[in-house]
Structures are given as C-alpha cells and as structure tokens.
Specification:
Blueprint lengths: L3 E3 L14 E8 L3 H10 L8 E9 L9 H9 L2 E10 L18 E8 L4 E7 L13 E3 L2 E9 L2 E8 L7
Helix pairs in contact: 1-2
Amino acid sequence: ETPLEGGPRGVAPPPPERLRLVQWNVEKGLRFERVAAALAEHPDLAGADVVFLNEVDLGMARSGNRHVARELAERLGMHWVFAPAHVELTKGVGPDLDAPGENAAGLQGNAILSRHPLAGARVVGLPVCFEPYHFHEQRYGRRVGVVARVEAAFGSVDLAGAHLEVRNT
C-alpha cells in the first residue's frame, strides 16, 4: 500500500513555530469548486498549515474524474499525499450512479495537504469492522489511515488522518 504524493518545487518555507490543523470530510469532492474556495478564503480554513481530507476521489465519474487531493493542493500551493482505501466497482451509490461518463481510476481514500514538505508518507491499514461490499456499496478495499511527517521549529511531527467507520459500537 503505497501512497501517491507531490507538491510544489522550490525553496521550502522555514519550519513553522506552530501548526494549525484542519480536518474535513469533502464528500468525494462532489462540490470541488466550493471546497477549493472555502480552503482558500474561509477564515477558519484558509490559514491552515495542514488539512486532513477524507472521502477523497481519484478518477471517479461522480466527481468529474478529478484527482481531488492533487488538484486542491495545486490550487493552494501545498504538498499532498493520497492514500487509496477503496477501488470503487461502480460509480457509487444513489445519485452518483447518474454521473456522466465512466470512472477513469475508481479510487477513494484519505489525503493530507500541507504548506510544508511532507516526508515518510505511508498507508496504514485499519481493522475491518464493516464491509460495505456486502451492504450497498460495490467496492474493494478497507479503511486506511494516511501518515506523513512534517518538520516544525519544535521538531518532527507525525501526522495521521483516517476516515473511521460509524456503523459499529
């Protein structure tokens, strides 16, 4: 399980004195332009050093076959890492099924965006506690966490984001 990653080239900013973290379930990136605008302009989001994203599509017809994490990071001038969790075997569920075209890659997962370079990125498998394939979603994979390290003025910080299952006690 290897994450995908990228980021801006050039001289990195100095390590920050503090880190401002934000987490957002972007619901597949269906409202991509609104998400991008909020991350760039909303006072509670625009200044974040690190943004954890879950329900992030890569190559799904329902979200315009975008690479949601990479495209958001490029717009914001941020580094990114994407951890695929599932290969979607259909276009999704409900209204997703009416999306025009076909899936280009059919992946969904979690991502980290950072204003500072990320290192040591990895995917961590989480225990299987609910299998949507046997329920309503036709996909293969499992819940995962995405982990990467960022250097701050006070030392290295390991960052971890995950999308946990809510159908369990």
